[in-house]
Specification:
InterPro entries: Ac_transferase_dom_sf, Acyl_transferase_dom, Acyl_Trfase/lysoPLipase, Mal-CoA-ACP_Trans/PKS_FabD, Malonyl_transacylase_ACP-bd. This protein is α/β, with parallel strands linked by helices. The chain folds into two domains: 231 residues, Malonyl-Coenzyme A Acyl Carrier Protein, domain 2; 60 residues, Malonyl-CoA ACP transacylase, ACP-binding (Alpha-Beta Plaits, 2-Layer Sandwich). It has twelve helices and ten strands. The strands form two sheets. It has a five-stranded parallel beta sheet with strand order 7-2-1-9-10. A five-stranded mixed beta sheet has the order 6-3-5-4-8. Helix 3 runs antiparallel to helix 5, helix 6 packs across helix 7 and helix 8 packs antiparallel against helix 9.
């Protein structure tokens, strides 16, 4: 079996996002570290009435906590061959799953990444998801309204970033052109667009200040969330990790990489199941689930092992 582990981006955070891992013993150290970075136990925070789960800093930390806690379950299942790839903030979490940074460094970096992005963009920005038009047409509509192509999801699916008002116009124009879906997403930052170029430089400095670890024996193959290429050179990989904040990311290429690597099983870790849904279209022959689709951690581990 060859397992592809996909790490979620922002947007799917919800009060029950830690239900499967909250009491999983191996995940306890992740939650302990997260409490120091977030300021409170994330398991309690997500369930607190009125908690803002979509604040940029909070959301990025929560997504990384979910990924790293879920990864402890994958480690317990001991799959023989693994590839990891992350979507947006999930790209940072993938470096933790691959053993390049410890959990505390990943969560510190998630906070630093969000702070750099907020400082660069300010208020009034967002992302929109569009499906059912060719990428070239989506990019043309976005450019016409002063917005930018942020993520290539598939040949007919993309995310666009820019000012909130302009994105409303982009969605209306896309629907008029025949898009199946055109909606504003629960993200308040124009991630992966030139509007955040200053954030890329600031985050690259934060990455350089952390100690990069040598991957342990048997570590999964790490795929860059920017372009789907394997990361062999740590320095070059970190540059991509910083650049993806302000450059269009090619998630479709990441899914192609998973398929070419021979993945026959795909598991999404993190809030939601958007990546699992995209993977089902891109790799139809594979067994695919999001962790949140299971009723228990032990059931997920059994599924990973084909039982």
């Amino acid at each position: 079996m060859t397992l592809a582990v996909l790490l979620s981006g922002q947007g799917g955070q919800h009060p029950r996002m830690f239900d499967l891992t909250a009491d999983w013993p191996a995940a306890a150290p992740v939650f302990t570290v997260a409490e120091r970075v977030l300021g409170q136990d994330p398991r309690d925070f997500v369930r607190a009435p009125g908690a803002d789960l979509h604040d940029n800093r909070t959301g990025q930390i929560l997504c990384c906590v979910a990924a790293l806690a879920g990864w402890t379950l994958v480690e317990a299942a001991r799959p023989a061959r693994v590839i990891v790839a992350g979507y947006s903030i999930g790209d940072l979490a993938a470096w933790g799953c691959a053993g390049r940074f410890d959990a505390e460094a990943i969560l510190r970096l998630a906070a630093a990444r969000a702070e750099a992005m907020d400082a660069a963009s300010g208020e009034g920005f967002a992302l929109a998801g569009i499906r059912g038009l060719r990428l070239a047409e989506i990019e043309t509509i976005a450019g016409r309204h002063g917005c930018h192509l942020a993520i290539r999801n598939a040949a007919d699916s993309a995310v666009v970033g820019g000012p909130r008002g302009a994105l409303d116009a982009v969605c209306s124009a896309a629907q008029a052109a025949g898009a199946q879906r055109a909606v504003i997403l629960s993200v308040r930052t124009p991630s992966h667009t030139p509007l955040l170029r200053a954030a890329s430089g600031r985050f690259e400095a934060a990455l350089a200040a952390e100690r990069l670890r040598r991957p342990p024996p048997g570590a999964p193959r790490l795929i860059s969330g920017l372009d789907g290429a394997p990361v062999f050179d740590g320095k070059a990989g970190l540059s991509k990790l910083a650049r993806q904040i302000s450059e269009t990311i090619d998630w479709a290429a990441c899914l192609v990489a998973c398929r070419e690597y021979g993945c026959d099983t795909v598991l999404e870790l993190g809030p939601g199941h958007a990546l699992a849904t995209m993977a089902r279209e891109a790799i139809p022959e594979a067994r695919i689930h999001a962790l949140e689709e299971f009723r228990s951690a032990s059931g997920a581990a059994d599924w990973i092992n084909g039982r």
